[in-house]
Amino acid sequence: MIIFSERINGMYRDVRKAINEKEKSVVQRLVKEQVAGGADIMDINLGPTKGDPVENFVWLAQTVHEVTDKPISLDSAKPKLLAEAVAKVHQALPGTKLVINSSTAAADCMATLVPVAAEHGASIIGLTMDQEGVPGNVERRVECGATFFMTAMEAGILPEDIYLDPIILPVNVAQKQPWAVMEAIRQLAILSDPPPHFILGLSNVSQKCLMRELINRTYLVMTITAGLDAAIMDAADKELVEAAISAEILLEKHLYSDDYIKAWKMQKGV
Amino acid sequence: MAIPDVKEKWSGRVNTVTLGATPAEGGTRGSTVTVGGASGIPFLSFDGEMPHPPVVAMDVLDKQPAEWPKALAEAYGDVWSDPAAWAKRVKELGADLVNLRLVSIHPDEDDRSAEQAAETVKAVLAAVDLPLIIWGSGVPAKDQKVMPKVAEVCQGENCLLGAVTEDDYRTLTAAAQAYGHKLISLAPCDINKQKQVNILVSDMGYPIQDLVIYPTTTSLGYGMEYIYSILERGRLAALAGDKLMAPPVILDVGHESWRAKEARSGDEVAELWGPADQRGPAWEAVTACDLLQAGADILIMRHPKAIEAVRNAVSQLTGA
């Protein structure tokens, strides 16, 4: 399981304030917490913050990098901003692996971001949607996912650097979608050998639900069974992380031992 | 049609472990032995490298063996009442390591004391300058008394001590830690327990990098497929990046092979099975060669002819 930490996000009030006031300690405490919980990649999202967004991305990436040398995922829905931010962050932190989060499968979006990923040796997340919006069914997700995957491969990006995100919608408003996402993963997984990674912004499934943690945990286990191997999630949520590890043990992704949680931590060095 | 590329891409690698210590390293050995380091399936040079081909440790018991068959008596009968002389013999025969078994400390054998065992170890260390593997009796209560003393008298020699198990690991781990030795981690026929023992030992602060694992051995004809699959699964986990399964593997080939009736029976069955002086060594050699393919890094062996055959096999497989 590749854990993208979701916590360094300007949507959270404490992070937003930290970015606006350039207060490193708040961010760095969260980073340490996420890394200790087993985060592999630090996703950073500015949210609705003040100032120049490219400069904010560089500041945030440098702030994160001061406490961990793990890869950094730049998270924004604005392709031009992402392209510029990736170039600047790569310049500031040349040794750090970057992830572009994310491109859609719309031609102009891919044309902006896929070459940037190839140029900077970055991984890239492709949402299974295009200019027509988020698909409500399995077929369109698979179509968009396949288009993105082929485009990235043609640009010379390896499957191990490609993540497909079939976009999960909140269960309280779109109850057919959790199943459709799982089915799309199953179908996209047979596209290539080795397959790309599959990722979700997990907590979206439980937006505005009452039982958020239980839904997140249950759905993560379900999607791992379908082939999900990465998630943007809260690495500090111990029960969530341990449920994911247990699911992977039951799918024989790791060798079982009685202390398999401890083994997983030793493996990560946390 | 193009030939498909079947090369595997592995993210992990078997740990490299060095045994013995020369005077420059604080010991008295003539040289050291390094095992492990493979980055792919054994002997598939296109898949990954095997920087340290498997080595042979030869058995030396601390008392005359009671039930060794004629073929082994012919090789060691004149020296086996004296462990030091026996150790010299295995060095002459080309052993990479001496595998010293303290069988006499077993309560059902001679119940010898820690001090007596320590004397034996000192005598063997003085007799040959090969690195040593030293095994206790397998009886926890007795080994807990003897092995710390043994570890102490060979301090600085960087020996390989056996074995820690899920139920009995604290004393030996502490002794290995205190006196600077490597450890054998044993889990009979159970790869999941093997991982668990390694977790327990490293939880005590003992480095995984200093472990050698012993997932048990069998002889040809006695469940080879089963043991092979256990060894293979452990090795594949290591190559896939499981650090807890990355230690090199030691296998007790001689002991298992010479328990088999096919190896032990004398010439009374020669008409059906062939002459005993060839059959026994062949049984040991074929067992060893099977286990080499499963990923053995240290083979503990007995008969000189079997060892010669295994060395030939290794050099042919590695193209050396």
CATH topology label of chain A: TIM Barrel
Approximately how much helix is present in the residues of chain B?
Answer: 40-55%
The H-level CATH homologous superfamily of chain A, spelled out, is Dihydropteroate synthase-like
Q: Given this structure, which CATH class of chain B is correct?
A: Alpha Beta
Report the sheet-strand fraction of chain B.
5-15%
How does the helix and strand content of chain A classify structurally?
alpha/beta
Main sheet record of chain B: 8 strands, parallel
CATH architecture of chain B: Alpha-Beta Barrel
Helix and strand element order of chain B: EEEHHEHEHEHEHEHEHHHHEH
Which word captures the global form of chain A?
globular
CATH class wording of chain A? Alpha Beta
Kindly report the oligomeric state of this protein. Answer: heterodimer
* Total beta strand runs of chain B: 10
Number of separate domains of chain B: 1
Structural class of chain B: alpha/beta
Helicity level of chain A? 40-55%
What's the average pLDDT of chain B? 96
Textual characterization of the structure:
The complex is a heterodimer of chains A (270) and B (320). Chain A is α/β, with parallel strands linked by helices. In chain A, helix 1 (13-21) crosses helix 2. Helix content of chain A is 48%, strand content 15%. Chain A has a single domain (2-268), classed as Dihydropteroate synthase-like (TIM Barrel, Alpha-Beta Barrel), CATH 3.20.20.20. In chain A, strands 1-2-3-4-5-6-7-8 form an eight-stranded parallel beta barrel, surrounded by five helices. In chain B, the strands form two sheets. Chain B has an eight-stranded parallel beta sheet. Chain B has a two-stranded antiparallel ribbon with strand order 1-2. Chain B contains twelve helices and ten strands. Chain B has a single domain (16-313), classed as Alpha-Beta Barrel (TIM Barrel). In chain B, helix 2 (83-92) runs parallel beside helix 3, helix 4 runs parallel beside helix 5 (170-179) and helix 11 (276-294) runs parallel beside helix 12 (304-318). Chain B is α/β, with parallel strands linked by helices. The chains are: A alpha/beta (270), B alpha/beta (320). Chain A binds chain B through residues 254-259, 262-263, 266-267, and chain B through 191-193, 195-196, 199-200, 202-203, 233-234, 237, 241-245.
